[in-house]
Amino acid sequence: MGNVVESIAVAFKELLSWNSIKYALIVGIASFTLWIVIGALFWDSLVSVSSYIIDLVPFSMVRANGSWMLSAFLWLQLTLITYAIFYAFFGSFLMRKLHINRYALFSLTIIALSGITWGIVWYFKGGVIHDELNRLLTLLPFETVEKANAFLILFFMLYNGMVVFALFTTSFFSKGIVQSIEFRCFKDVEVVRDNLFNSIGHTVKDTVIFALLSIVLFPLLFIPLVNIAVQFILWLFLTKDTLAYDGAALSYKDVSQAPIKEHKAAIWSIASVAVAFNFIPIVNFFGPLFGELAMFHYFKKLSQK
Fold this sequence. Notes:
By secondary structure, the protein is mainly α. The protein has one domain. Helices cover about 80% and strands about 0% of the residues. The chain contains 13 helices and no strands. Helix 10 crosses helix 13.
């Protein structure tokens, strides 16, 4: 477990470097642009799909979960608005005073603090907010509530699409991403770069299973708190194999299932931390990056023993 803690600490430290921030920004912008374009081109069709899903769920459950979904959406909006207001007043000043590395780190810190601050408000007043939203939904016709939930589910689907795309892209560029850790921690050790082993196949397989399980377990997403646990487990299942196979492929000349099966606890631990990033918008693009860095460091350390 000591190696796991060390790898997580090294990965967190590496996230603060400009090389890591640059990769995360590129992945984030590409992912956001792609799924916004897809959403714009196929909006009506996607809304029809989400509306069909809503029709399969009892209205009482739709209304109850709609309150929680609206509450989460409101938290997201307040988090982003707070971040935008802060930079509207102080952004230009900070750009003049801070180096680009520190500016990017400061931006991530502000949005994380914004999310945590509003999260604390929701922790103490979430019940009141939920009750007021539930009262509002009770006054609205079924069709209005149904359509509002269909829109929220669509945004949820697009967000999951961004998570999957970020994982694919980070995996594809994994060799470049680990360069900084390679130079700092393993400069006297050969890092495998000509390995034919590729984790993309595992990512594709896990993505298909992730999509199918999301459909099967969809009713559970209408149960407060259970929905958070279910989504976390689904993201964890999607992520862990890709990160593990990438880390092993960059550490062993002959990649096999042995080190992956032998160190399942470490893989689940690192992947769990990486998946936790997904719960905060924008910060979520750093999750796969963190996972790649931590997993590479962990397996490279093992390969030296």
